């Protein structure tokens, strides 16, 4: 289980840490900590136990109006502001020495206007732009600049830049541009979120989560692993539920077993970040979750 990671969101929650984190785990991914003492506790435990720290940008809450940096915005001022905020946060977390820093990509997401996105949760209108107003040419130009900049910052601050897929459009799932960019900047890695990929699969008739996983798993450093149950009318139930072998896709659950088989077939070195609500299951079920996932790597 030395590839397993737990998340700490909002604070360093000792109750969650003591229950979820097991001996030999790789580390903790931290995001949006509200107080300095939470960061101090994270560092104290990391030093005491010897685990790695990953940062889901931003580490500190309140440094910007939105959580995610809008570095692909069609508005140049918004793009520059995003880079400035990231730079400030990288300066702050340099002393923490995170093994990776993760950002949502693309942001803003580029939405296919043919799809009904009403079931997708956006924090703010600025988090998405429509495909017919955001050209492939613009997407390529802003992505190339981002990759060059992040690659440089990764070397400068000694961390692995990770881009977590958000909503994907045809620029990503139907074209090889991003694959070529990832091959060129091999120090930049991806994060695949199983629940988010499955949700888009259900909402977007033009998107196939299994094909996307097959296409991009070789570039992944981290998998954000959880399950979600979606009804026939696309109502979301049991979101961020721990993955368990009893969850049947015929009952609306994501096909986690198939996802994991494909990912590990393409890339045996991925880390698993359990981005789930462990409070939804018993201690025994949490162990079942860990042991079941661990078997895929054996």
Main attributes?
eight-stranded parallel β-barrel; globular; 298 residues; two-stranded parallel sheet; 20% strand; alpha/beta
Number of continuous helical runs: 10
Share in β-strands:
15-25%
The percent range for helix content is: 25-40%
Radius of gyration: 18 Å
Gap from first CA to last CA: 10 Å
Shape: globular
Give the strand tally: 12
> What's the arrangement of strands in the largest beta sheet?
1-2-3-4-7-8-9-12
Quaternary status of these chains? single chain
Low-pLDDT runs of 5+ residues are none
What's the rounded overall pLDDT mean? 97
What is the string of helix and strand elements?
EHEHEHEEEHEHHEHHEEEHEH
- Class inferred from helices and paired strands: alpha/beta
Instruction: Summarize the biggest pleated sheet.
Output: 8 strands, parallel, barrel
């Amino acid at each position: 289980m030395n590839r397993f990671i737990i998340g700490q969101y909002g604070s360093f929650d000792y109750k969650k840490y003591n229950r979820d984190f097991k001996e030999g785990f790789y580390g903790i991914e931290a995001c949006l900590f509200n107080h300095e003492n939470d960061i101090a506790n994270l560092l104290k435990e990391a030093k005491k136990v010897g685990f790695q720290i990953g940062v889901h940008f931003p580490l500190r809450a309140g440094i910007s109006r939105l959580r995610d940096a809008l570095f692909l915005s069609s508005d140049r001022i918004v793009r520059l502001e995003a880079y400035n905020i990231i730079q400030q946060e990288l300066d702050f977390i340099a002393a923490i020495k995170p093994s990776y820093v993760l950002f949502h990509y693309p942001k803003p997401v580029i939405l296919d206007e043919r799809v009904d996105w009403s079931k997708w949760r956006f924090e703010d209108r600025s988090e998405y732009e429509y495909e017919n107003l955001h050209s492939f040419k613009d997407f390529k130009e802003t992505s190339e600049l981002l990759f060059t900049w992040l690659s440089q910052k990764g070397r400068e601050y000694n961390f692995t830049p990770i881009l977590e897929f958000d909503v994907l459009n045809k620029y990503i799932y139907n074209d090889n541009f991003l694959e070529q960019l990832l091959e060129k900047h091999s120090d930049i890695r991806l994060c695949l979120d199983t629940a988010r990929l499955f949700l888009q699969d259900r909402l977007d008739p033009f998107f196939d989560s299994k094909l996307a996983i097959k296409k991009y798993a070789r570039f992944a450093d981290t998998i954000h692993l959880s399950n979600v149950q979606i009804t026939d009318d696309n109502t979301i139930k049991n979101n961020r539920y721990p993955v368990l072998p009893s969850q049947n896709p015929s009952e609306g659950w994501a096909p986690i077993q198939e996802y994991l088989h494909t990912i590990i077939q393409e890339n045996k070195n991925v880390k698993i970040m359990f981005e789930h609500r462990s409070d939804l299951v018993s201690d025994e079920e949490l162990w079942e979750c860990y042991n079941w996932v661990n078997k895929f790597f054996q």
